[in-house]
Amino acid sequence: MGAAFGYTQLLGGYDGGQAEYVRVPFANTIASLKVPDSISKDEQVLFLSDILPTGYFGADMANVQPGDDVAVFGAGPVGYSAVMSSFLRGAARVFSIDHLDERLSKTKDLGAEIINFDKDNPVEILHTESKGKGVLCIDAVGFEAVGHTPGSINKGSSSGIHDHSTVSNPVYEPVNPIQVFEWMYQSARKFSTVSVP
Q1: 72 near 84, Cβ under 8 Å?
Q2: What residues does each domain of the chain span?
Q3: Torsion-angle region of residue 40: left (phi > 0), alpha (psi -120 to 50) or beta?
Q4: How far apart are CA 74 and CA 95, in angstroms?
Q5: How far is Cα 79 from Cα 82, in angstroms, rounded to an integer?
Q6: Which span out of 120-129, 170-179, 180-189 was modeled with the highest average pLDDT?
Q7: CATH for the stretch 50-195
Q8: pTM here?
Q9: Does residue 154 contact residue 185 with C-beta atoms inside 8 Å?
């Protein structure tokens, strides 16, 4: 069923929300808005189909408030939108965590402080920069950070993640399915929500 919502080949073969045509279950009842006739180019509303709302939803789920420090894990299109949305909601500082410099530079252009996890430990940096209080965390990775092995989850934290590493797919590279969650749990402010839009 996940494929009906535009997920990857791993979950089915339907194109996502940026396809020329998309099948939206129950679109006539809850999920669609008519694009005004004044909009002449698809590019003007393209990001409203998936990317921008997902990033904003991440900031909303994390309950970003004015003055908050936020860590966005993943600097792709959804992460970019989560950084932008966190600033829109009044965040004082936003940290963008990824390992692709091209993506990090785009979020830096928005004002984010960047952390390349191939070079630095994001948990240590976030702990230091927040003076030990922690940050609000948003997962914008989609699939976990490739090639990084997990540390231990802080005592008292927990997570339940389905491990796809046994799935056979020639284009899917098995990875540690909880690395980003571990970083988020270790970096999160006490009693905050770890946002996974």
Answers
A1: no
A2: 1-48, 50-195
A3: alpha
A4: 10
A5: 5
A6: 120-129
A7: 3.40.50.720
A8: 0.71
A9: yes
